[in-house]
Amino acid sequence: MKLTDTGLTVQDIKDKVNTYMIETYERMDFLCETARDQYMYDEKGKKYLDFYAGIAVNSAGNCNEKVVAAVIDQVQDVMHTFNYPYTIPQALLAEKVCTTIGMDKIFFQNSGTEANEAMIKMARKYGIEKYGPNKYHIVTAKNGFHGRTFGAMSATGQPGNGCQIGFGPMTYGFSYAPYNDLKAFKDACTENTIAIMIEPVQGEGGVHPATQEFMSGLREFCDENGMLLLIDEVQTGWCRTGKVMSYMNYGIKPDIVSMAKALGGGMPIGAICTTEDVSKAFSVGSHGTTFGGHPVSCAAALAEVNELLDRNLADNAAKMGEYFKKKLETLPHVKEVRGQGLLVGVEFDDTISAVEVKHECLHRHLLITAIGTHTIRMVPPLIIAEKDCDEAYEIIKASVVELTK
Ligand code: PLP
Predict the structure, then answer these.
(1) What does the pLDDT look like over 219-232, one tens digit per residue?
(2) Atom of ligand 1 nearest to the CA of 260
(3) Could you read off the pLDDT of 131-188 as tens digits, one per residue?
(4) Candidate of 247, 261, 269 to mutate for ligand 1, largest count of ligand atoms within 8 Å of Cβ
(5) Rounded to an integer, what distance in angstroms lies between the CA atom of residue 135 and that of residue 156?
(6) 249 lines ligand 1 (CB under 6 A)
(7) Euclidean distance between CA atoms 32 and 13, whole angstroms
(8) Count of CB atoms within 10 A of residue 233's CB?
(9) Does ligand 1 have an atom closer than 6 angstroms to the CB of 113?
(10) CA end-to-end distance (rounded Å), the chain
(11) Which of 13, 89, 216, 282 could form a disulfide with 299, with the two C-beta atoms 3.0–4.6 Å apart?
């Protein structure tokens, strides 16, 4: 939809949003009318370099032409069916995802938080059926993020950041341990613990990658104790971190993995993948969703996954991530540059506000996000080249210089 087709002004659009919408977002002060590749455009056609990609979603580029074509094609054939009849996009996507990441089974949902709900439900049901009614406890990481529905929010080991505070009692059955602290995780497990659930890189928590020792140690500990390792790859999955899945960077495999965001290439979809054995926890009637596995989202996801794999965008994410991180380390007022592939965080010293850097970057037509008080995060489309990193770097540098004048 274009502004000229509506006869409205930008201010009219802002007024309608402010009047009618329940706002839980601090809006960026620009109207995104169109988007292509690594750019967004406002109503005047002004170009913005997009280094947040709808929060790690548009990995093969905004409005990737193959994804768009797949959506148009599918919309004309069948739009929605519920999960009773067989559909072609679901079948093809299920096979593609499972065979690509070496898992046996998939269950489709609509979003990241829903995928995590399914992961938690499956782990609990597996534990209770195999070991008895008390085997439902799950240990997750402090400062993690798993979503905003009650199970995922209860699994999220941080009260603030718009998560648990103010929403009353959380779902019973979770404990939290400090990230990357293997001993603390082991100590937090009890005889009732069925699973450990973590992100391989804490994205919303400030871009903190897991250490090799932590990941290998958790895998070993779960194996020794008949527990499941649940990995949330909602933000890291599908090539962002330099491998198809971030856990592949560590040479380990989870028992259940959740995914969403980049999987759909801009259409809403989430999923969990697991082993044949664990998948048996779900049977006919035990879990379900009206829209999960939507034919149009599955068609888009199949096109997106093919693009990511055929163009080897995981390798590009690894190369560009290294190149970009090295440059960012030379920024003024930098405390630390962290990340994996093209999930990159820059923590500044106490004199620099991340939100102010974000605003200054927006003035200069670079889109980034702020996470925490002093940390900015960049999750660009994985198609970017060195020139895009150079441009983003110069804009961030100019923004920091402006703030310290
Ligand atoms: N898990 C992780 C690691 C995430 O980063 C997010 C969102 O940022 C979620 C879950 C929730 O995903 P969604 O917003 O699609 O519900």
Answers:
(1) 999 999 999 999 99
(2) 15
(3) 999 999 999 999 999 999 999 999 999 877 678 899 999 999 999 999 999 999 999 9
(4) 261
(5) 20
(6) no
(7) 11
(8) 30
(9) yes
(10) 41
(11) 89
